[in-house]
Amino acid sequence: MGRIPYWNISYGILIDAFAIPFVALFVYGMYRWWKLIRQGRARIRPDFPGKLGPIYLRALFTKGILGTKIYKKPYTGIAHGCLFWGMVLLFIGTALVFLNVLFGVPVFNGIFNRWFMSFTLDLAGLAALGGLLFLLIRRGFFSPERLTVPKERNGFISIVILLGLILVTGFLAEAARIAYNGTDPGAFVGNWLAQNTPLAHLAAGSITPDVIAGTWFPPLFGDTQGWLVFHQYMWWMHGLLALAFIAYIPYSPLVHVVLAPVNAALADPLPGPKMGVMDFSSFEDEEAEDTPPLGAAKLTDFTYKRLIDYTTCLWCGRCHEVCPAAQTGKTLSPKGVMVTLAEYLQQGKLEDESLVDAVSSDAVFSCTTCAACMEACPVCINQPKTIMKLRQHLIMERSEIPELMGKAHSSLELRQHPFFGTGAGQKDWRKDLEVPIFEAGKTEYLLWIGCSVTYEERAQKIAREMVNILDHAGVSYGILEEARCTGDPAKQMGNEFLFNELAEQNIEEFSELGVKKIITLCPHCYNSFVRHYSKLGGVYEVTPHSVFIKVLMESGKLNLTKSTKTICYHDPCYLGRRNNILDEPREVVSSIGELVEMPRNRRESFCCGGGGGNYWAEEEGTRINQVRTREALDTNADVIATACPFCLLMITDGSKKFTEEQKAFDIAELVSMQLKDD
Amino acid sequence: MHIAVLAKVVPDYEVPAGDFELSDNRAHSRYTRMMGLYDENAIETGVQLKEKYSASLTIISYGAEDDIPVLRKAIAMGAEKLVLVTGQSDDASVIAANLKMAIDNLGDVDLILAGQQSADMDRGVVHGTLAEMLGLTFIPQVSKIESENGGWKISQLTETGSRDLQFNGKGVFSITSIPENVPRIPAVRAIFAAKKKPVEKVAEVESNAMGIEEVSVEIPTMDSVCEFLPVEDVGETVKTLLTKLREERYL
Ligand code: SF4
Ligand code: SF4
């Protein structure tokens, strides 16, 4: 005979009726969030394959529903997975019971009853309980620092107690039912409890008040029918607590259960913060009544997506743990930023312009825009975009910028390059070298030199060696007569206006010259061309030099010898994490020596400290470049290779603390050294 | 209160020595033009005074019309208008006479600020000459200005130390560079607003040049000489290095 739903429960249907106010509370709570979130700014998104309106379907399924990013930390990931999926299965089981009661859906018969309603649901409950216990023990005894700095979230214990009670009462109600009705095949937890606890005595009718007094059972049952009352107690407690849990979701940190999939579904899967470009036309327009805010001074200046970010944040601190600024004693903690904004949102301070000061401008300018935080975040939050929006406000509306960065900014504004006080002239890098100038209609590739390679002596070698490689391979290339900057440093410092000005000048020159294909030496230039110039009308085929070298190697145009050197490759953030170019530089390195990896590599690579305009920063605390260089030197590799002039300069500087040897080289320098004479 | 700041547009003053060249005895025209280094400090000081004492602020420049886009930056920093006397003279007396004409035209100027010295000629004489012509007091190398009891409390900062002064009436101050007057980056809205603010162009007036004739102009040549100093004791080596740099007049 199948199981009888609501067995031993009079008016069991009431639990379904009670569900209505609890669900209404849930809906109301979510509506309150929605009301807050919709005070942000809507945004228009370009179409993207695999999108349904604003929803990225693949991301919804993988990062949102499956929660794939949470498993990057395997233990906590599995614990969360057990808890979440256990609860999901139990919820499905409960919904099936409901369908059985209302519509007679036959869920309590045959194989389905045994293997799903009994076995699977017991397993789900056990997994959820196990996950919960793991999280409780870890929080209680081995709490990682990331959970507590700069702030710990309240509410964990009440959630654990609530979930624990739901699971335990569920099992006890099941065990009491089994103890009376006999073994339920498949319900292995309920069967075990029924046979190995005082419930067995209850069922056998052998229990007396004396027996009960000698056990851990509450002295609830004065007669042999006590088990019936016990079952009823457990059943109602279980049901009501489960409903309370649902109602509690929007009013507690549990809100992430609903919002994490939403956030993942709305997050553009292109890597990096995706800053886009700003349109300043309304500022020129004399008729325009309203001009948009430049950056963000208050919560309502952010988009819906950002406000969902702050609501979804788990305060888990995974971002804090990987942030180069936070890990080297700077004021910035990406978790701290999210927490501050979440608190403002929760307190309804949507128009409060003290927000930037609450985050602090020191913190805002310490961000290297490396995007390690985004990579680590299990719920697809875009922390750097928030930080950059605050930075845009500081510089474009309030004219605030740290002094050294301000000097670089002024130089960029005045001289179109940020290297103030440079001792290098425009043409110094190509002294005694024959370098062709790009000729309209004749030259195929524009070799884009960029500002750091032009004006920083150590980086000049990159261009010289790349010229050697291109000559060796017989590539049709040319450079611009005048050295230029893409404007990326302005963008990173938060001045989108200056970036647009510089980019538009370059686009105009490229159009005059008919430039179609570009080789870049700097990942920041590459990122600007592919991500931002295209939005300003400059669409080119752009190849970073590391990829171009790999293509030349594959087509047999480079005759290389392999050395016995061990080479440790440092991933530049703007090439690796931000543009997914991870394999090509490694293939190049492997063809000229033996590739060695640092513990933090590929998408988990640690920044050199030079991004976000912080090449021009007076760092507080430990220097980021020294931390990264130490990590590279600890591999005992003969040389450190990279594919970014800023990384090269930062690591070269960082290594001075540890060795007098020149350890850091650009990939082009290393390849050029291994070129065989034909 | 009406404050006028004198600003000069000059060729890039940070061109690396190895890349610097002359044409017609002046910096080559290929170099980017920008506001003088100390002039920006003077503008920043003017803007701060304007904000503090609700003054009005005018920028006055002597130079070419092509310099207007550069001078708009000064307006974006916080000035209300720009007066440009169009002219090409390098003569301190001619420039001062033309600036005087612009100041006289404004009529109600209480305070005239100028950068300590221009970034191209490096003379530091125009403001003194102007003060003489206007019959006003000239105070050089001013780092701080505060209004006090209807007059001015002024700090003067020189290489050898600082002095606090008190002064009543109208005056011409040359402004030196201190951390507090690092020029601000104009806010983007201010840049757009500056495009709409008035620019008054005034033709230069004839005046007598100083009795000086420029015979020739030379710029330092780059010379690389390498000398190794022993480093048994770093402190001693640094002392030796300092002495040598002083002897060679690099410091
Ligand atoms: S982008 Fe990098 S530096 Fe900025 S907050 Fe994230 S991890 Fe920290
Ligand atoms: S932003 Fe993401 S990684 Fe950082 S604390 Fe919030 S949920 Fe965790």
Describe it for me?
With 678 residues, chain A is mainly α. Chain A has 30 helices and 10 strands. Chain A folds into 4 domains: 134 residues, Fumarate Reductase Iron-sulfur Protein, Chain B, domain 2, CATH 1.10.1060; 214 residues, Fumarate Reductase Cytochrome B subunit, CATH 1.20.950; 139 residues, Rossmann fold, CATH 3.40.50; 115 residues, 3-Layer(aba) Sandwich (Rossmann fold). In chain A, 53% of the residues lie in helices and 5% in strands. In chain A, helix 29 links the parallel strand 9 and strand 10. In chain A, helix 6 runs antiparallel to helix 10 and helix 15 crosses helix 19. About 2% of the residues of chain A have low confidence. In chain B, 35% of the residues are buried. Chain B contains 6 helices and 13 strands. The longest helix of chain B is centred in the first third of the chain and has 17 residues. Chain B has 251 residues and is an alpha/beta fold. Chain B has one domain: Rossmann fold. The radius of gyration of chain B is 20 Å and the shape is globular. Chains A and B meet through helix 19 and helix 20 of A and helix 5 of B. Bound molecules: iron/sulfur cluster (2 copies). One iron/sulfur cluster binds next to helix 18 and helix 19 of chain A.
